[in-house]
Amino acid sequence: MSLVLEMRDVAFAWKKGHGVLKGLSVAVKRGEHLALLGPNGSGKSTALSLCAGLYRPDTGSINWYFNGLALAPNDARARAQFGVVFQHPSLDKQLSGRDNLILAGHIAGMARSGINARVAEQLAASGLAARADDRVKTYSGGMRRRLDLARAMMSEPQALLLDEPTVGLDAEAFDRFWQHLGALRSSTDLTLIVATHRPEEAARCDRLVMIDQGRAVHDGTPEATLRALGQDLLALRAEEPEEIAGLVTARLGLVARVNGPGETICEVPSGEDGARLLVKVVELFPSGRLQAIELRRPTLGDAFLKLTGAQLGQDVAQEAA
Amino acid sequence: MISVSSDAAPAAVPVLDATRRPELGLIIGLARRDLMRLRRDTARWLGLVLQPLLLWALLGSGLAAVFAVPGRPDVDYHHYFFPGLVVMIGLFTAIFATMAVIEDRDHGFLQQVLVAPGSRTSMVLGKVLGVLLIALVQFVLVAPAATLAGYDLGAIAWGPLVVGYVLGVVALTGLSFSLAWVSRTASGYHAIMGILLVPLWLVSGAVFPLPGHGFLGVIGYADPMTYMVDAMRHGFDGGSASLAFTTPVVSFTALAGLAVFAVLLAAFVARRPVGGLA
Prior knowledge:
heterodimer; A: 35% helix; B: mainly alpha
């Protein structure tokens, strides 16, 4: 399968000595849905901005491949072929949803004759036809996201860059947004590159690249990533997670990690009965020491924690740089 | 991370759809947006006409007894101030409309423009065209009031007047856009406008006659808005006004040069980062 985008050894710093990306290499195949998974500040949004041509890498190269040509991100021919959904919807809230899509058609350089039909198509696809003439400022967060996606799809792009597209959405709006993306996938050969810190979002993609401190630390399918993590996990809630992790490791020989304030994660060893181990852990501590304990399947967030020692929900200090 | 061979063999096949027109599309899109916003927010734009008109009416009445142009006892303040009022409307429109650049940056709209296939120059041209269209609507609304200022609508040189107004608004928009682009906040932009463009309007001969010599005279020649005020005076007075600081040739030539310079400046400035964006 051919490539649509390739980042090779890309480094970028907002200011000298504060590198956000430190030699990131990612290749994306045509039609693939790729997640760049990492916590805030890991560099994934910056990577997307570089792919969109908003900035230029300090070193390394980024190329889009369309119709047999290798194109730089700021090449107008490349920009005509990819769309971007930004972390904050790129909409004019004073105007209606319909007006925003009409504008997007013009801005993308579409012929006037084709704009109205495409607007109607996108409004129907995003489920916003009934509210098309209302001002965007009256839309809910989920509706704005869907409209922003429709805006990015106005020019019928071959690839779409999505930067934290569901941030701030509740579960229902999240599902609806991804249903919409799923429908797009079934009807087009659209390539998606999604920067996200949400494991459940990355799990919906074909492949994920985990980014930590500006570097790719893992590349694989969500399924293979979870398989590699192995068995179930025990999640322990307690006031002193470091101490809990140390005790569990010392007394029961389990691999344990602190997962943020108040939580310790223990891996259930292969061949061990998770339920039986749960009882052993409960018996290890005096009554009241553990606030809660749960036996669950590992998530991509657990995989990230295992690989990097960092949580996905955690802000990384370099973001401020 | 993965090794997949690319299909990027050099080819002469144009990627861009032949039916697409990214530059024209961006210009039309941005200009159209300003008109859409005018339609959605008519009161705001009418306010930019009514406020100067009110100021003109009150100042004209208040200063009637004390204002006099040396050697021109026939000129009252309503008459004198009217060309300056028209410039003020163009100036306010340019300031408010280009302030949207900062709002767009803060609220996200600008991002879709920055990743569009069209160039930054087209972005500037689209913005300038949008502001110009709004300013022309306002001009149509305010021009009939010239009769109240003692101008004969039939004697006005409409061609030069409109040309001067268009050139002036283009120049003011280009300058305002450049300042908005480099301003980090809306309040910072307001401050720059307050200490730069508004004072320039005050010393342009719009509010009081400029002396031909001395400190104010030098400022008058250096002030780009002087040429717009003079172009308005020439237009309203049938092609050549004795109240103008400069001749019609000088004012229109300077204004045309200024308009070109301001647009080029805006296109140049727009190539650099805006706030946190590239």
